[in-house]
Amino acid sequence: MRLRHYSLRTEQAYAYWVKRFVLFHRKRHPREMGAAEVESLLLGQGFPTPPITAVQR
User: Fold this and answer.
1) To the nearest 5 percent, what fractions of the chain are helix, strand and coil?
2) Per-residue pLDDT tens for 15-45?
3) In whole angstroms, what is the distance from residue 41 CA to residue 47 CA?
4) CA-CA distance, 48 to 30, in Å (whole number)?
5) Residue 48: how many CA atoms within 13 Å on its side-chain side?
6) Cβ-based neighbours of 14, under 8 Å, separated by 6 or more
7) What's 46's DSSP letter?
8) Is residue 46 exposed (0-12), middle (13-18) or buried (19+ Cβ within 10 Å)?
9) Were both Cys, which of 15, 30, 33, 46 would link to 37 (CB 3.0–4.6 Å)?
10) Given this model, what pLDDT does residue 36 score?
């Protein structure tokens, strides 16, 4: 990521998401997983539903 000149914050965010992905799937290696596992993280219990804070008038 340093070769692509990403900011430190972007690098930290990517590392966070990789860690979350691996832990969500019980420490399986990312090479063993594919699109179905990514979808289960994004649509499944990997993300709590955000609360609705306001209604547009």
Assistant:
1) 55, 0, 45
2) 888 888 788 777 877 778 888 887 777 776 6
3) 7
4) 22
5) 3
6) 1, 6
7) T
8) middle
9) 33
10) 81
